[in-house]
């Protein structure tokens, strides 16, 4: 099993969700987050004084899936979230040791 | 009852203007003039009461919210408290000795520099006493003049706090306010605005404040309010020093929404400030009103345009700053300019203020927190000098009125002479308030201290100086 964490531009969320549904993903967790990467945040100017270390608002998506579909999930997110401009975000893939569905006690891939 | 109070506007009559008056006096000595209650017009009374309330609105809520939104969350409450308390204290000081010092001349050893103390605690002022306007035989109840001018005395020291917001102790600030009003504001108000009124001037042509006597034009307070407060603010921010972290860590405004609320309320209140300064509900009030609208609109648009060019984005804070710069600049010229030249004056002031705020301040590295000098002093100076230009009847201006004649009439206008007079007025104001402010700030700095400890400053003034927070989430 893999846990895929993607940081994307907020306005791309709907497209990414559709793409993930298309490759069979049945659930995901979404959070509003802030951060910066190579873009170094945004520059704000107040009466001529520049502030450039501010965080940029982003969406974080977490998806758990079987190892066999992880590549397709990553591809789907990458294709759907890309605009070609700076700040499109990142995707991280982590190994997952165990998963449990709380209601039934099912474990691992049947719990996803 | 020679109610010799009065203020501002209409006139600059220079020394030469007094000569024809003396000639007339020699020909036919005027009978003593006594204003009567029948010379009071209810329309003027109604408008001036409304205008006075408008000017109070400029301090609380407008200035408090405008400044408050511009500081960081941890200092929001301190700015609100400073402005509110200064308004309260200034109103009491005005009642106690301010009105007398600004608008009397008897009992003073230097009657052209400051007034006497014979109307302390409003002694002798009651519902039957009258104050002159700018028209012959038109009077206001003296209480109204006291109230209107009181609101000016309230907002001027409150303007200063923006220059050293986020790093000043509360008690020394209030002590400074009382002393500064006494030694800077009241004398300057007297110098610029004191005169006996048109009905008395031809019999006592020298009974005026110094700058009024020179013929300086200041309709609603460019020198007295804005240059005065702006220069005091600069001196204060230099004496107190920069905020910890200035230019090394981010200090963005905590709520530009509140700043917008404050700036827009300032604009509305300014109609009382400017259109009320004619002291009558007449065409000159309307002229001041439209000039306050056009100059400000031009200044707000000009700031947005220059930001679009320089920073590629027009910011709300920029447009709001331009609006305030335009309001400041049109203040001395409000009753003299044509709406068209007011537009030019507002736009020019906005561009110069933008340059000071975005470039000069950063180059010289002084920490004028909320740009009190960059907008009020610089905008006020542009406006005061510009008044000499836009008042020229050749440009559609109103010129100056020769009140020394028994019936006031237009005086001959020479733009170059008037501009030089305006420069003298600006120079006297800068020197006077600069000197007084420096003495007061340095005196407080080396006695009870002006600046909180570094720990207090970093943690914020709200919780340390006032025991409260502006926001409890």
Supply the key terms.
heterodimer, A: 112 residues, alpha+beta, four-stranded antiparallel β-sheet, two-stranded antiparallel ribbon, 6 strands, 38% strand, elongated, B: 473 residues, mainly alpha, two-stranded antiparallel sheet, 62% helix, 2% strand
Total helices of chain B: the number is: 16
| Main sheet specs of chain A | 4 strands, antiparallel
| Low-confidence region ranges of chain B | 1-25
Spans of chain A of 5+ residues with little confidence (pLDDT < 50)? none
Q: What is the number of beta strands of chain A?
A: 6
The two chains with the largest interface, and their residue counts, are:
A-B, 9 and 18 residues
Round the mean pLDDT of chain B to the nearest integer and report it: 92
Instruction: Please state the average pLDDT score of chain A.
Output: 91
Query: How many angstroms does the end-to-end distance of chain A come to?
Result: 9 Å
Q: Count every beta strand of chain B, where a strand is a DSSP E run of 2 or more residues.
A: 4
Report the radius of gyration of chain A as a whole number of Å.
17 Å
Tell me the β content of chain B: under 5%
- Measured as a percent range, the helix fraction of chain B is 55-70%
Number of helices of chain A: 2
Structural class designation of chain A: alpha+beta
């Amino acid at each position: 099993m893999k846990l895929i964490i993607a940081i994307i531009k907020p306005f791309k969320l709907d497209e990414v969700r559709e793409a993930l549904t298309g490759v069979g993903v049945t659930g995901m967790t979404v959070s509003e987050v802030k951060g910066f990467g190579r873009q170094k945040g945004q520059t704000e100017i107040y009466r001529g004084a520049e502030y450039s270390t501010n965080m940029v608002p982003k969406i974080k998506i977490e998806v758990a899936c079987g190892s066999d579909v992880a590549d397709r999930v990553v591809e789907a997110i990458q294709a759907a979230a890309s605009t070609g401009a700076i700040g499109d975000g990142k995707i991280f893939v982590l190994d997952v040791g165990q998963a449990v569905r709380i209601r039934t006690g099912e474990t691992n891939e049947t719990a996803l | 009852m020679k109610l010799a109070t009065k203020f501002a506007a209409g006139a600059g009559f220079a020394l030469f203007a007094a000569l024809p008056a003396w000639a007339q006096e020699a020909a036919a000595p005027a009978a003593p003039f006594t204003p009567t209650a029948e010379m009071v017009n209810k329309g003027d009374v109604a408008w001036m009461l409304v205008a006075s309330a408008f000017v109070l609105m400029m301090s609380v809520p407008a200035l408090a919210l405008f400044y408050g939104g511009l500081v960081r969350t941890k200092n929001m409450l301190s700015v609100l408290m400073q402005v509110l308390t200064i308004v309260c204290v200034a109103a009491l000081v005005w009642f106690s000795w301010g009105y007398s010092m600004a608008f009397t001349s008897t009992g003073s050893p230097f009657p052209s520099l400051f007034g006497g103390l014979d109307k302390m605690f409003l002694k002798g002022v009651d519902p039957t006493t009258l104050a002159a306007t700018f028209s012959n035989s038109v009077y206001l109840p003296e209480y109204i003049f006291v109230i209107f001018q009181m609101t000016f005395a309230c907002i001027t020291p409150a303007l200063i706090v923006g220059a050293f917001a986020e790093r000043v102790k509360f008690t020394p600030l209030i002590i400074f306010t009382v002393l500064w009003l006494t030694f800077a504001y009241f004398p300057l108000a007297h110098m610029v605005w004191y005169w006996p009124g048109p009905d008395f001037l031809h019999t006592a042509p020298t009974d005026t404040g110094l700058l009024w006597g020179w013929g300086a034009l200041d309709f609603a307070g460019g020198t007295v309010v804005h240059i005065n407060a702006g220069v005091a603010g600069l001196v204060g921010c230099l004496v107190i020093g920069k905020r910890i972290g200035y230019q090394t860590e981010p200090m963005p405004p905590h709520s530009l929404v509140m700043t917008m609320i404050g700036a827009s309320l300032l604009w509305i209140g300014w109609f009382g400030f400017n259109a009320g300064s004619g002291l009558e509900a007449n065409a000159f009030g309307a002229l001041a009103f439209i000039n306050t609208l056009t100059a400000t609109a031009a200044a707000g648009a000009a700031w947005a345009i220059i930001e679009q060019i320089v920073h590629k984005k027009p910011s709300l804070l920029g447009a709001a700053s331009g609006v305030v710069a335009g309001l400041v600049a049109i203040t001395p010229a409000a009753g003299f300019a044509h709406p068209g030249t007011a537009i030019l004056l507002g736009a020019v002031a906005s561009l110069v203020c933008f340059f000071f705020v975005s470039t000069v301040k950063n180059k010289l590295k002084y920490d004028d927190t909320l740009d009190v000098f960059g907008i009020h002093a610089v905008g006020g100076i542009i406006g005061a000098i510009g008044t000499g230009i836009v008042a020229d009847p050749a440009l559609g201006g109103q010129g100056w009125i020769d009140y020394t004649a028994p019936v006031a009439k237009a005086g001959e206008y020479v733009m170059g002479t008037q501009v030089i007079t305006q420069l003298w007025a600006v120079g006297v104001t800068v020197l006077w308030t600069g000197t007084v402010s420096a003495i007061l700030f340095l005196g407080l700095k080396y006695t009870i201290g002006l600046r909180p400890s570094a720990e207090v400053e970093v943690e914020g003034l709200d919780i340390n100086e006032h025991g409260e927070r502006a926001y409890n989430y």
